Amino acid sequence: MDRFALHDGDRIxxxxxxxxxxxxxxxxxxxxxNGRGRTPMRFTNEDLGVLKPWAAALILAPxxxxxxxxxxxxxxxxxxxxxxxxxxxxxxxxxxxIEWGTQRSVIDNDPVAxxxxxxxxxxxxxxxxxxxxxxxxxxxxxxxxxxRAAQELSGRPADLVRTRMTLTNLDLxxxxxxxxxxxxxxAGREVANRAWDAALYEAVDRAIESFPLDRPDAHSxxxxxxxxGAASPPGNGRRSGQGRGPHxxx
Length: 250
Description:
- By secondary structure, the chain is α+β, with helices and mostly antiparallel strands.
- It is built from nine helices and seven strands.
- It has helices at about 15-25, 70-80, 120-125, 125-155, 160-165, 170-175, 180-185, 185-210, 220-225; strands at about 30, 40, 70, 90-95, 100, 105-110, 110-120.
- Strands 2-1-3 form a three-stranded antiparallel beta sheet. The protein has a two-stranded antiparallel sheet with strand order 4-7.
- Helix 4 (about 125-155) packs parallel to helix 8 (about 185-210).
- The protein is globular.
């Protein structure tokens, strides 16, 4: 390519994001349960630019609270189900985004990150897809609850809390708990559920230690991190003696 021309494009009636979802198969979308408020999906943790290793798994199974969709990934899953892709083929999603500055006049960053989706045989199995999606949503809920509790207890600005109360360094833990033996029904799945649960709360501890609270009840965010009624990985047992609330099954 030695040149290109940028034109104003055709006029299409409708809401911008609704049109984009209809005509752009490559964008991943996050939608509220009521069907409104559709936005491009974030695959990094806000301003940190840190990849969320579970991001792609959010798209693998439907969710009633905040559905995530992507046409290209759905096409890959359907191809795996039809047997078009060899079962041992490892698939990978490459996420990319544009982060805009003030008044969307300047591009601040254009992060690109590959995320493993494991093998075609795992994607072809609805049960294994559901396991990965459940673990991913659980991580989102734990992080959200942690941020809300930290903001309530500290009284600090939401933007500051959001960037500091972020679950990080979980890439290896995610990889080690999403292999075929760890998502297929059986003892391996149960062990992986407990391992992912433990890794999440170790990340919670790290975040709290980096964001000290001035009040004597600084341990409270730990208890608040456990989702209330969330779809947590089945078979997990909350470790005792660490000041955390009860952990619901699903």
